[in-house]
């Protein structure tokens, strides 16, 4: 192997490593819910090719209100599923849809679009 081939191999391995690191180890920052005076934990989530923020932290035993604003017409995001909370909701385009939950126990609960392509997590502490 000459030095150019060696160099290309090393760069290729480094890039592959970076991609693996990104998918498995880089954690998306979690956003904590804001509590209102009534004790409801609220979070605004923008739906556009994904959920932003996609990781939401709340405290168990207190009501949660997720405000999903769907900022697109792409049919991928038109349905929201939170199987752990029996939520299946249509998200009309360019509107805010409120989803209310009462998480009883700590854990990490996924929410997805109807096809399971867009993903987010509710982290209950
Ligand atoms: Cu989808």
Q: Care to describe what's here?
A:
The protein is of the alpha/beta class and 125 residues long. The protein is 18% helix and 41% strand. The protein is built from one helix and eleven strands, in the order H-E-E-E-E-E-E-E-E-E-E-E. The chain has one helix at 3-24; strands spanning 31-32, 34-35, 41-47, 51-52, 55-58, 64-70, 79-82, 87-90, 96-101, 107-113, 119-124. The strands form two sheets. Strands 1-5-11-10-7-8 form a six-stranded mixed sheet, with no helix packed on it. Strands 2, 3, 4, 6 and 9 form a five-stranded mixed sheet that branches. The longest helix has 22 residues, at 3-24. It is elongated, with a radius of gyration of 19 Å. The chain starts with a helix and ends with a strand. It binds copper (II) ion.
């Amino acid at each position: 192997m000459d030095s150019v081939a060696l160099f290309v191999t090393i760069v290729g391995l480094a890039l592959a490593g970076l991609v693996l690191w990104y998918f498995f180890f880089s954690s998306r920052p979690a956003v904590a819910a804001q509590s209102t005076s009534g004790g409801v934990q609220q979070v605004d989530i923008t739906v556009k090719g994904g959920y932003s923020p996609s990781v939401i932290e709340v405290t168990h035993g207190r009501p949660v209100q997720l405000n999903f604003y769907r900022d697109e017409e792409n049919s991928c995001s038109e349905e929201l599923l939170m199987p752990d909370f029996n939520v299946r909701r249509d998200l009309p385009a360019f509107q805010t849809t409120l989803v209310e939950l009462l998480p009883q126990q700590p854990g990490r609960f996924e929410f997805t679009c109807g096809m399971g392509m867009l993903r987010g997590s509710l982290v209950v502490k």
